[in-house]
Amino acid sequence: MNRTGLVIALALAFVIGLVFGIYPELDLKLAALFYDVAQKTFPLKLDALASFARDAAMWIAWGLVLPAIVAIVVKFIRPDRPMLMSPRAAIFLLTTMLLSAGLLTNLTFKSYWGRPRPVVVMQFGGDLKFVPWWDPRGDCARNCSFFSGEGATAFWTYAPAALAPPAWRPLAYVGATVFGIATSGLRMAFGGHFFTDVAIAGLVSFLVVWLAYALIYRWAATRLTDAQVDSALTRLAWPGYRAMQRWRGRDVGPARVSGAVAPKGL
């Protein structure tokens, strides 16, 4: 997650956006590599093993963020106890996953960017008109092609890679890149997305992870410590915890954070 990575990502975004903006038919030519003209379908989408691999990729990605989800949920149940993992890491992993694979993808672009998927455009036996990546005026009504949610989820694995020990981090980045490319390749092979859908998904996920890592870990003005994050979550969770304890017949008092009054009855 250094400046070199950011420069490479921005350069790729510029080149891909420009080339496929000027020559949008390249998206069709790449999608055609997976299309069987005789059968009039994308054959791999009917393959059980390929479908399992697609599902497994999402299980792996969400499996990597599951410890963060569990740690935060447990913290809200028992804010009087330390978190089960690094508070910074938990917030970093969950926030980047929600942003890249959720908010930016499914709740923003895919809901309002009407680009049809390859499987439904006229060139591949469908009835909708193909539009380039930059044009949101396609005829897709919902759950559209731009950009790929599964691609964004797969490339989100840059986030746990960024938390790997320094000696293993380059290998972790390579693994995340291979994982993202393989998963995105499956989405193209199924006729679910064009190349630009998955490429831009990967670049968006990388940029989200890069920025979040810089904010939480690198930049002095915004850098957080585990103690700061733990204290913030404690303060946020404490009113609900205190209300529950009062309902059970005891008052635990104010939250125990730096400089605060210690809770009662603990």
UniProtKB/TrEMBL annotation:
The entry's keywords: Membrane, Transmembrane, Transmembrane helix
Transmembrane annotation, as ranges: 56-77, 89-109, 198-220
Pfam families on file: PAP2
InterPro entries, per the entry: PAP2/HPO, PAP2/HPO_sf
Signal peptide: none
Domain Phosphatidic acid phosphatase type 2/haloperoxidase: 92-213
KW Transmembrane (keyword) present: yes
Source organism, top-level taxon: Bacteria
Protein name, UniProt field: Phosphatase PAP2 family protein
Gene source species: Bradyrhizobium jicamae
